[in-house]
Amino acid sequence: MGDSRGPQAAARRLSRRLQVTLVWEGALVGVAGGGVVTLYRLALSGAERVLRGVTGAAAGNPLLMAGWFAALAGLLLAVSALVRWEPSTSGSGIPQIDAEVEGRLDAPWARVIPAKFAEGSLLALAGLSLGREGPSVQLGGMAGKAVSRGLGRRRGEERLLVTCGAAAGMSAAFHAPLTGVLFALEEIHRQFSAPLIISVMCAAVASDFLVSQVIGIAPVVSLAFVRDLPHLDYALVAALGLVCGLLGALHNRGMFAAQGLFDRVVRGTPATRLVLPFALAGVAAFAWPELMCGGDAIVRLLREPVVPALGALVALFVGKYLFTAVCFGSGAPGGTLFPLVVMGALVGGAFAWGPARSLGLSETFFPNFVALGVAGLFSGVVRAPVTAVVLVFELTGSLDALLSVTLVSVVAYVTSSLTRTDAFYEHLLARMDLDRRIVAPRGRKDLGTCVVGAGSRLEGLLVRDVPWPDGARLVTVTRAGTELVPTGETRLSALDELLFIADEDRLADVRLKLAVMCEPRVRT
Questions:
Q1: How far apart are CA 455 and CA 171, in angstroms?
Q2: What is the sign, positive or negative, of the torsion defined by CA atoms of 401, 402, 405, 407?
Q3: d(Cα 224, Cα 394) in Å, to the nearest integer?
Q4: What residues contact residue 49 under an 8 Å CB cut-off, 6+ apart?
Q5: pLDDT tens digit string along 325-350?
Q6: Under a CB-based contact definition with an 8 Å cutoff, are residues 292 and 285 in contact?
Q7: For the segment 406-446, what is each residue's pLDDT rounded down to a tens digit?
């Protein structure tokens, strides 16, 4: 590791520029991503209105019902053609953004955005049980990539802007900016640094402001939390967390199994894989319309003054899960987060109506357990408990829910983890066929950062004694807010932020090796 001051000074100025420019670039990405997702939400709302109007008018008329099934066949062919045109749009879109941020995928944003937009609108018109959140994250991430390409940014900074776009997409989809920030950091980027957090927050807030001006300030899902539970009832909250953790593991295993079954269909794909979910959508439109689309009809049902019966809640949960599993397993280009939120609400409501009520829980707290079910199932499936807590806080607008929501999220997270079931999006990323890998031009450099963890291999080492990965060069060490120009005699301390430079084509490998060396460990 050399100590030439010229390159170090230039790179240090670059790092400071990044900290400042990422703020306004994050806001720019928020406007771009929020604009795309706002239009997407409007298109989905219009498509669902048309769906319910047409199917409502056709119900009971055999000729019109047959005509609707013929229309579904046309929609199936259109969606299949779009997926063949741009394969990166299949599925929810979140694993693709994970791969983009990790530097393992380079999808063409100019094709992904129009294809995903059109596919989602057509699927909403068809009534498949899919949500808007996954596609919104992908649309936002690709908008961030478009901004990066427009500004001429390198791959390292581009991945940060893709993360900002993902936060903007989630913020606009749920109308929950803090959820967008936490989801992007906890699930997408999986690294925390002050410049990144600030730029992601700017993107999420700018996106939320834009969607608020166009669609309004009402949340997508309005949950109630009447008042804090009596302390004796927190045992029921923990029990709900246990149930949500087990159901979260079963949810993931069932979804993965559905994927495996559809993977066996190899001829005429993707159209042949979409036949079953489109056929079920046609049946649901006339036999059980509450199951169609993301689940807004179920949310409205749960907000009625008269609480649905326990059997109805269980039936809705089973029906919604099976329909969503078929749609998701087929590879249809739609998300599962909103159906997941709806299923969580059903789990919480069924728990309050059944076991909790039999143990003396007052019906007054039914809305509380609906909200707690959302947090618990989200945490058990996605394994992002902090995001689950913040999501329910934003959907309820009540700090009274903080303690019980945290408890149910943590218990669900631990329970689901103990079943040795893969986290949902990590599994999807692992099984992706990444056929568009990054091939960076040789000789181009890019920057990366890592933080020395307490008890890690690097803590206490001199810079000259660190087994740096080939091609990596340490630029600066930020310690307690002060930037240091390292020499071979600089001793690394816990929480030091290391800024390093490496060839673009080796940056991902360098980042992975340094992350392992910086991983915190408990010394015994």
A1: 36
A2: negative
A3: 11
A4: none
A5: 999 999 999 989 999 999 999 999 99
A6: yes
A7: 999 999 999 999 999 999 988 888 877 544 444 444 456 67
